[in-house]
Amino acid sequence: MGCAGTDCLSGASKPAEEQPPINLLDLNCTEPNVVPDSFCSQTMQFMSQLDLSSDAGRPVESVGTKSSLYMKTEKWHLLGQGGSGSLPHQDHCGLWTWVRVDQGRKLWLICHLSEDDRKLFAKEGSAFTSGQWFYLWLEPRDILIMPPGTVHAVFTPEDTLCTGGNGWSKKQMGDSMRSIAFEKMSPHVTNDDPIPQLADLLDKVSKMMESEYSAEEFGGIKEVENFNSYYEVCAFTLSSILSRPY
């Protein structure tokens, strides 16, 4: 499984033969102009628009700031030692994900799930081995893009550095909300830490959809209905996502 830098470094005092390969996630990325063009569109910059706006009477700080949330998800580095990897999971919070290999190689496995497979994944989490799996090798300069809820696993055969990032698509928030609802019901399907501002951000999206914004701006009436149906199911207990143990 992947780990944050502090968690991995805490075990560095163990003898070398007892230490598993290190897989550092969400490392700070300061390089400019690394985000793919497809994630720079106004539609895919939706999360930054939420960060920088505010409801009447609500300060921006209460829904997160560009430095605390958007800059953390917009771009990051992954650094994995040879032999490291991650077990089956989906990325959290209904986020789209892009990953580019800078040095080394990654074996990326992606699973197509039937309805029965998804029920089993919800039960088994990282121990899940069913479904129809596909794989691809990511070489330097290759870019992989995953929609919300993509079940995947990763193996790193050699020391590898990647750059990646996340975002919400304004026109496909129904897909993101469906993924969030699934995560709420089965928290162990993801290996990521929760975003503290998630409930406030989703509340803001819901209010935007109810206001003067047209359904077309959010991908059409069906997409808005999908968002609302999943949001109504889990909005009152979104705090469970934020307080679950790791």
Please describe the structure with a list of short key phrases separated by commas or semicolons.
246 residues, 8 helices, 9 strands, disordered C terminus
- The Rg value, from CA coordinates, equals 18 Å
Secondary structural class: alpha+beta
Strand fraction equals 15-25%
Spatial separation of the terminal alpha carbons: 12 Å
Low-confidence stretches: 4-13, 56-67, 239-246
Number of continuous helical runs? 8
* Strand line-up in the sheet with most strands: 1-2-9-4-7
Basic shape? globular
Total number of β-strand segments? 9
SSE ordering = HEHHEEEEHEEEEHHHH
What integer is the average pLDDT? 84
**Major sheet details:** 5 strands, antiparallel
**Helical residues, percent:** 25-40%
Structure description:
The protein is an alpha+beta fold. It contains eight helices and nine strands. The chain has helices spanning 5-9, 46-52, 66-74, 115-124, 173-185, 198-210, 221-234, 239-243; strands at residues 23-28, 76-80, 84-89, 96-103, 106-112, 132-138, 143-146, 151-156, 160-167. The longest helix is centred in the last third of the chain and has 14 residues, at 221-234. 33% of the residues are buried. The model is unreliable at 4-13, 56-67 and 239-246 (pLDDT under 50).
